[in-house]
Amino acid sequence: MEQKNEQPGTCSGLVTEATGSTYTVVADDDSVFRSRTYPGTKTENEETSLVAVGDRVELKVTETGREQFEAVITLVKQRRSALTRKRDIRRNRSKEKIQVIAANIDQLVVVVSSFDPPLSTRLVDRYLAFAESEQLDVLIVVNKMDLADAALIAALMEPYHQLGYSVFYTSVCEQASLQPLRQALGGKLSAFSGHSGVGKSTLINLLFGHKQLKTRRTNLKTGKGVHTTSNSVMLPLPDGGYVIDTPGIREFNLSDITRENLRFYFREFLAVMPDCAFSSCSHTEEPGCGVQRAVHAGGIDPARYESYLAIYYSLE
Ligand SMILES: Nc1nc2c(ncn2[C@@H]2O[C@H](COP(=O)(O)OP(=O)(O)OP(=O)(O)O)[C@@H](O)[C@H]2O)c(=O)[nH]1
Ligand SMILES: [Mg+2]
Ligand SMILES: [Zn+2]
After folding, report:
1. Which residues make up the binding site for GTP (predicted)?
2. Ligand closest to CA 168
């Protein structure tokens, strides 16, 4: 189906994979183009990555034949949201320190594992603060439930249920555990993110394996040294929507969060903040702090408050 209002040889589409400087773009009529940027590529974004998986772009289709590329990207449209990471300077010669790993997502899927690597609620709290700041829907997935004591994990995750976050408990050894997550992904553009080795790629393969056209095969044998994801890849879901598999991160980059605005992204703080003696209270050391009082009275989970402090002091 040709779009009528476009120039001949031009079309718009979605970037589904970025490998080096080659981008796979799925056009609105479902045709797939191997694309590249050129010095005239324009962008409506300020972030450093010119093109990222999830971007909407305009293409100029080049002559088919012996060309290595089938299209050039003429315009990168404004992003609704961006998941970023700090580049590993030692491994990457690029001058860009911040890289966009997924653009335009509706939903962030935070994946942790119950064991190997151990469950980090501190990391979960960083992701949640980010999701609140960007007003993204967020799902928390605790994977590898076959390796841990379910009661211990449930106790650790109880505060998140109390706060109204959606928590999913999965094991790739038990197909039935995947169904609620599969349902929550339908029709949306979701990005899976988390530490390396928690099972993001394995989960995505199993969730939608039968319909997946392009993905990195993940080694299903347990143990170290398995193939890990190095580039984000977007996959269409059978009944609409997409998932983006992203590379494992060391520490999640909080982009626009500052010491001043962090307090608004811990949702349990909002109800008690009016009790603080100072309206600009940072909830760290001030006397008469409503948040600290709530922590002592048991109304706010102490581990969440500790995460708040750790994140607060990690910011500039
Ligand atoms: N026991 C158990 N092992 C799992 C489960 N899910 C994944 N694994 C194993 O964990 C290892 C890492 O899985 P991956 O899917 O590669 O992890 P990843 O999160 O994609 O890692 P990166 O691509 O490095 O970010 C693999 O050996 C998987 O087989 C699970 O539910 N239970
Ligand atoms: Mg992976
Ligand atoms: Zn306070």
Report:
1. 143-146, 194-202
2. 1
The number of folded domains in the chain is: 3
240 and 268 in one domain? no
Is 56 within the bounds of a domain?
A: yes
* Whether the Cβ atoms of residue 112 and residue 195 lie closer than 8 Å to each other: yes
88 is annotated as contributing to ligand binding:
no
State whether the beta carbon of 233 lies less than 6 angstroms from ligand 1: no
Write out the E strands in 144-274.
166-169, 189-193, 233-236, 242-245
Question: What's the whole-number average pLDDT of the chain?
Answer: 87
276 annotated ligand-binding residue: yes
State which of 110, 142, 193, 218 you would mutate to test the pocket of ligand 1, scoring each by most atoms of that ligand within 8 A of its C-beta: 218
Distance from residue 126's CA to the centre of ligand 3 (Å): 20
DSSP state of 64: P
Question: Is 301 contained in some domain?
Answer: yes
Which domain covers residue 296, as residue numbers?
262-314
In this prediction, residue 90 carries a pLDDT of 59
More confident residue, 13 or 46: 13
| Residues 73, 79, 84, 89, CA torsion sign | positive
